[in-house]
Amino acid sequence: MGDSMSDSLAPDSSAVDPSRVAAEPSDCFHCGLPVAEGSQYSVTIDGVARPMCCPGCEAVAGAIVAGGLDNFYRFRENSSERPETSSQDQRWQAYDLPQVQAEFVRDFSGSLHGVDTAEPLKVASLLVGGITCAACVWLIEKQLKAMPGVHRVSVNASTHRAQIVLDLSQVKLSELFAALTRIGYRPSPATAANNEQLIQQERRTAMRRLGVAGLGTMQVMMFAIALYFGGNKGIDVQFEQFFRWVSLIVATPVVCYAAQPFFAAAWRALRSGHLIMDVPVSLAIGLAYGASVYATVFDTGEVYFESVSMFTFFLLLGRFVEMRARHRAGLASGGLAQLLPLAALRRGEDGELESVPVAALAVGEHILLRPGDTVPVDGVVTEGASGVDESILTGESELQQKVSGSRVFAGSVNSDSSLTVRISAAGSGTRLSAIEKLVEQAQLDKPEQAALADRIAGRFIAAVLCIAVAAFVFWWQQDPGRAFWVALSVLVVTCPCALSLATPAALAAATLRLQQLGLLVAKGHVLETLPTVDRVIFDKTGTLTEGAPQLRVVTPLRDGVSQESARDIAAALEVENNHPLARAFRPWFGNRSASNLRAVTGQGVAGVCDGVEYRLGAPRFVGEICASGFEISTPAEPGQWLLLGDGSGPVAWLGLGDDMRPSATGAVHMLGEQGVAVELLSGDQSAEVPRLAGLAGIRNYQAGASPEQKLQQLRRLQSDGQRVLMIGDGINDVPVLSGADVSVAMMSAADLAQSRADAILLKGDLCALPRAFALAASSRKIIRQNLRWAILYNLLALPLAFLGLVPPWAAAIGMSLSSLLVVVNALRLSRWQPAA
């Protein structure tokens, strides 16, 4: 870092004025080194031409600005290092800077089989322009996986987003960007601004190409009609040749500009030794155009400029409609972070309000939310009362009433009146960011159905090329004049677009709809596995119940012990525990203090209070510190009972109550109607377990189950051939969540439980589970419909094209319609509604 910068930096790094970064006007704005007199290197940042000392700094700064990351200069605290001069493309060196990577690179929280690295792995989220099909995805993944330090690559063909798990000590991000550029793709950081820019650019470019193809097709068709129908009336040979030359002139922009994406994609695939569906498309367009040019120049044979133009137009039209459908359905959204505002009203210590960038907000500060404002951070309301729309997080359309002490979350919208909020989490620490990370994590897992479709599509293209050659040879022997055009039709009509789109389009639409219904999919296999699940296992506390236990009864068991002292000792023991039961003691935290606190999973808590060792939890656990031991029966009254004891014996019973979720009974009933068995496994040893099981309608239940016993029960069920879904929220549920075929964690669950779960229940409505089962069944049905249609279409179209019954223009229409059919069918899932 340049030392010349240190004296000029503002002490508050959260709002550094860009104009103050350079120590002197003659210093390089990027690295801080002196700029030679007469230097012409500069980059426009924040509307001002900033001086640069060399081409390297100019290239790096230009890449930062072009990538929409110019906030890097606004909030950096020191100058950047001067880029080294090397053979590597300097455009991408900016992305090796940690400050720049902070916006699109995060720590990898999962695990990789057989991978053991000294450095922690990272996940880079990129947008990749130029993707046209599933085979492009396959090509990108193969190329990047071959690089040292890249451990996993997952590319989503619908969103054009790439998730790359890598070791930055072995490979630089600039090397990944350069590798993608070399094979013809356009990488950029997956930020909200870049995603929106990519969508707009994709739409504008597609409309321009479609417009050129449409105009060219109409013009060429007019001349083609004159050639077809005028020829029978003895059209003058000179006019015929004139029409051919005009058609050549009009069709050339269609082929060279409108059809350019097909040629570019095919060339980069062939250069890498792979086949994608644009290969046969490019061959069809290029060969037909070349043959027509030859016929025009040498005045021999037939010309098919109208077929080439029409073919290109229908292909582009099909892709354009498919692209618009993806955008409308939200399948190409740039992430939830784009929901956040760019600025917020921060309240200073003197009460004055100032508008500051959201990126400059810090934990502990206060902000003002006016009616209609989107909440930019997580926080706690300190003043005011208002209704807040949290539908983006929970799927719940009703306003949630917030008063002083209520929590609000980034992405929700304030509705009624102003609120003052103390920030508890900002940026990547918010719940919205956590949800987005889970969505990105799900993209790392490619479902087997999608992977199978990709493999089939790749092999199918090779088969199509062979069949086209066979058709050409066959017709050359029968009718040489038709051989070329029949082979052309075979190439066009059998492109596996529909086959490649059948599965990913349906999975993307279903995943989006599940999130709207309140279930966030965090692992890619969930939708595939749900229809095969035979049994659902519920945890009790915080899952089947509300997770908001209340201390209802304190029964002293020893003379001289009051209800208040027993309660305060129990609260002191629970103060560091994150189990849901500990929430019942929050009102009394701080009344007494305890040391040497420890928690024993599934048993209770222990600690020393006023020099005495206490335990709180199951009677057996408490009895372990009593030398003489004791036997005590749990009170018969309803509730969850915890025993407080010390070395002298029992001290008091503490009875907790936790209401059952209103949706529990309905969820159990709906699962039963779907043929899914339901079971309750709880670590609670009280009579509350059978009581709640009876209320919910669950026949199979087990109380006092330790984490090991829960896992044993899961393994026993799986060994009997059952597929099991586990839903829980505590750390003691982590082993069984990890072992289940599908695991679901409550949104209020411990972070560790959420990290091991395949899906997150965004709100407390357990009925989202049976709805997810029904939607997964519909998703599987639609995927099978799409695959059957794609295969049936090719089985019917291929023989017809081989027999010469399908002209090239009709083949283009058929291929486009088949692709549109599977996309539209898949998008039905985005509007799926559960049965009444």
Short description, anyone?
Its main location: membrane. With 836 residues, the protein is α+β, with helices and mostly antiparallel strands.
Name a few traits of the molecule.
29 strands; alpha+beta; Alpha-Beta Plaits
Largest sheet: 7 strands, mixed
Question: What distance separates the N and C termini?
Answer: 64 Å
Total number of helical segments?
Answer: 26
Q: List unreliable stretches of 5+ residues.
A: 1-24, 329-335
Q: What's the average pLDDT?
A: 78
Secondary structure layout:
Blueprint: E1 42-45, E2 48-51, H1 55-66, H2 71-75, H3 98-101, E3 105-107, E4 122-129, H4 134-145, E5 150-156, E6 161-166, H5 173-182, E7 186-189, H6 192-230, H7 237-258, H8 260-271, H9 278-297, H10 305-328, E8 343-347, E9 353-357, E10 366-369, E11 378-383, E12 386-389, H11 391-394, E13 400-402, E14 407-408, E15 413-414, E16 419-425, H12 431-443, H13 448-478, H14 480-493, H15 497-517, E17 519-521, H16 526-529, E18 535-538, H17 540-544, E19 550-556, H18 563-574, E20 595-600, E21 604-609, E22 612-617, H19 619-623, E23 640-646, E24 649-657, H20 664-673, E25 677-681, H21 688-696, E26 700-702, H22 707-719, E27 724-728, H23 734-739, E28 742-746, H24 751-756, E29 759-761, H25 768-802, H26 808-827
Helix pairs in contact: 6-7, 6-10, 7-9, 7-10, 8-9, 9-10, 9-14, 10-26, 13-14, 13-15, 14-25, 14-26, 15-25, 15-26, 20-25, 25-26
